[in-house]
Amino acid sequence: MNFIEIDSLLLLENKLSLSLACVLGLAIPWAVAITLYRLYLHPLSAFPGPALAGATGWYETYYEVYKRGKMVEKLEALHKRYGPVVRMGPNKLHFSDVAAYDAIYTNRDFRKTSQFYDVFLASEASFGTVDNKFAKARRDLLRSFFSRKGVLKLENVIQDTIDRLIISLANKVGSPKPLDLHRVFSCITMEVISAYCFAKHYDAINYPDYAYPVALALHMSNRMGCVAQHFPIVLDALFSLPDWLVRFVSPDALAFPDFRRTLDDHIEKILKDPTTLEQAEHDTIFHHMLNPKSGQEVPSEKSLKQEAAVLIAAGTETTANACAHAVFHVLTNPHVKERLKKELVEAWPDVEAPISLERLEKLPYLSAVAHEALRFSHGVTAVLPRAVPEATEIAGVVVPKGTIVHMGATFVHRNADIFPDPLTFRPERWIEKGSSDLGELPSSVLQGSEGVPRRQVCDQRSLHMPRFVLTPTPDSLAWAEIFLILGNVFRKVDLEIVDTTLQDLSDFEAYVLPIQQIPVKACVKRVEG
Fold first, then answer.
1. Which H or E run includes 85?
2. Helix axis angle, 181-198 relative to 213-230, nearest 10°?
3. Which residues are bridge partners to 523 per DSSP?
């Protein structure tokens, strides 16, 4: 190397150093200026909260991604310190006042935010769209299929699937290997929603150890979805990888995408030849969506595919979580178990004779157990964001235009003013006379549910299911599943909880849906009928 080449390299090095210095010289003052603006001049600068949260969105990313779903837990601590309104990001507020729940989630002018919802890849489905008008039109289109009348018409589809579960559990009697109840109930709820919506059966119930890959992949996608919300490039990178590489790294990772492709193929065949619907065992969601009432539009192929995937996702996890919580808490509280068993035996003395959904729904204590299980399982644990289009008053606080507002469901479920001793599983709170405290719940959380016994439920209202699920899968179907599953399991199956504590259920990662670190496990002791 001669002197000319050395001089050229030195000159290049100096230019690079100068360029880097210029970049840093501009970036650092810019970052300082942005931070100072957010802390002292931003419209939310007067709201209480950690300075770091007000300065950068990385605060939320740290608790969501690095600490693995612990933002909700952190928010509980922040509200204890700062009060009912906390600044959780540069342009985000979180509320703990129950009065804020209705104001945020029933205001049709508030819009969903694309940063949160785009990751679900369902922009043309009822859940994933950020267009409120479109979402309402889609809910209207789906409503008749999931109506009370529609559910009762297809009650036998749900019961037949549950009967197969009972037979499967009977084959596990005496086995020392405990069952993961979340897996068990995920298999049954996925089978129910598939059979109900698509007249399709995937035999998930008979999969070894109930480890149905599609359900497992769906469950774990909660964590990946959270990462993708903070780092969208991750989702793009995953979709750019060849399938063979993804399968090599994680054999089950493609289970849900493969399942979606199966659904997509089914939809394409229907669109190509609508007469194939005549071969279905019963009416499906496609009968309703492809033959809408006057004034309603027929969804596009893309929209049909997205809605089908969303219905599967929404109809599986939340109900499964509620059932797993119900089994754990009933079996670990002897007085609850005894009272529920007594009620079921009196109402259903001969298990060989079928019992109707309507009969089960009239059992007050079973209803109370279902409500309390829903409260403990939380349904959707993520703090779902809404954008405020104009300056608005929420729970007595004026929120500036453009602010992103949230309120997590756990802040209602664990509110001691509404639910005294909120961490205690006590179904009686739902049927005690004079329990007027429950009447203070917002209408979007408390609302009359069809078929639920009301004469003893406080203020004649009960937990509103749509707030516990991802999509507008109506409460009629969700309630039907819960009553039929819990009624059949507690009447026919003798389970014993093993290797699971209350702390295990309390320790969860709060993504869109909760992920328990240690699942509820049980052994099957006896099956009757």
1. strand 85-89
2. 90
3. 496
d(CA 310, CA 304): 10
Name the burial class of residue 101, with classes exposed (0-12), middle (13-18) and buried (19+) by CB atoms within 10 angstroms of its CB: buried
Give backbone dihedrals phi and psi of 514, rounded to 5 degrees, phi first: -75, 145
pLDDT band at 453 (very low <50, low <70, confident <90, very high): very low
pLDDT digits (tens, 9 = 90+) for 316-363: 888 999 999 999 999 999 999 999 999 999 999 999 999 999 999 999
Angle in degrees, CA 38, 43, 49, rounded to 5 = 65
- The answer to whether the predicted template modeling score (pTM) of the entire model surpasses 0.70 is yes
Closest CA to 203 of 234, 229, 148, 165: 165
State the helix-helix crossing angle for 181-198 and 301-331, rounded to 10 degrees: 140
Vertex 86 angle, CA 82 and 88, to 5°? 130
> Residue 22 CA to chain centroid, in angstroms?
47
Tokens for 376, please give them: 């403990």
* Per-residue pLDDT at 281: 85
Q: Label residue 511 left, alpha or beta by phi (over 0 means left) and psi (-120 to 50 means alpha).
A: beta
Domains and CATH numbers, the chain: 97-527 (1.10.630.10)
What is the rounded CA–CA span in Å between residue 377 and residue 329?
11
User: Two tokens at 114?
Assistant: 């694309």
**Roughly what angle, to the nearest 10 degrees, separates helices 255-272 and 301-331?**
130
Which tens digits make up the pLDDT trace of 357-396?
999 999 999 999 999 999 999 888 888 999 999 999 999 9
Backbone angles phi, psi at 227, to 5 degrees: -60, -45
- Residue type at 208? P
Structure-token pair, residue 419: 């639910």
Rounded distance between C-alpha atoms, residue 287 and residue 279, angstroms: 12
Cβ atoms of residues 93 and 404 within 8 Å: yes
Report residue 359 as tokens.
Answer: 């009969």
The pair of structure tokens assigned to 198 is 């698509």
At 457, the pLDDT band (50, 70, 90 cuts) reads: very low
